[in-house]
Design goal:
about 25% helix, about 220 residues, six-stranded mixed beta sheet, alpha/beta, single chain
Length: about 220
């Protein structure tokens, strides 16, 4: 399984580094004049956190391939889950596309590898629905900066760290009733997303007592 993880890394690096001179349109999904963006459809889900009931049901959005189940939905047959975190531009749907296509380019398939891309929104971002979603303020201090696990906007009565949200996502994946075949979770981050997951790896509150024998790998 670890070899397959490195295959994804290699494929993702190829996708990220491949430029105008050698277009790979059948794989590229980010905005790019030489690429076909219709290869897959991506949809947004809402992950309900432990504090969602006190936030009028607001959850944190994330992207996934439309053909795959929502996070937390019964998912037998999937052996690997991959989280990929966007960078400063907060364009999670493009990162979901990069990763889904990297999975395929690595010789695997989306029937056994789940792809999730958490989406952090800041005020004014296109796609933000403040009535159903958590959001983070544009902030440069650790208290509220999502890159450091800061808390969601204090415009709401209750706030939550995105690191706590990621902990809860991992605990959800450790539920054998929903994920009986899952063997590994991988967290990828690029640029500001890499910084986020690197810090998360240091401060996560999830341990073996939460995940059992489910391993988590980080690539940043």
């Amino acid at each position: 399984m670890r070899a397959s993880v490195f295959a994804i890394v290699a494929a993702l690096s190829f996708l990220a580094c491949n430029g105008e001179d050698t277009p790979i349109c059948e794989w590229c999904e980010a905005p790019h004049s030489g690429c076909d963006e219709s290869y897959f459809e991506y949809v947004q889900g809402r992950f309900q956190t432990s504090l969602s009931p006190s936030l009028d049901g607001r959850g944190i959005p994330y992207w996934r391939p439309a053909s795959q189940p929502f996070l937390g939905e019964s998912s037998p047959g999937f052996t690997q889950a991959v989280f990929v975190h966007h960078g400063e531009d907060r364009d999670g749907v493009h990162y979901a596309a990069y990763m889904a296509n990297a999975v395929l380019l690595a010789g695997m398939d989306l029937d056994t590898t789940l792809v999730f891309a958490p989406q952090i929104y800041e005020p004014g971002d296109s796609g933000l629905d403040e009535s159903t979603m958590l959001w983070w303020e544009s902030c440069s201090t650790a208290k509220c900066d999502w890159r450091w696990g800061g808390n969601s906007s204090d415009a709401l009565d209750t706030t939550i760290s995105n690191f706590q949200v990621y902990d809860e996502m991992l605990r959800k994946l450790a539920d054998k009733k929903s994920y009986p075949d899952l063997e590994r979770v991988v967290l990828f981050g690029h640029s500001a997303g890499g910084q986020t997951y690197q810090r998360y790896a240091l401060f996560t509150q999830v341990g073996s007592e939460d995940l059992g024998e489910l391993p988590v790998d980080y690539f940043v």
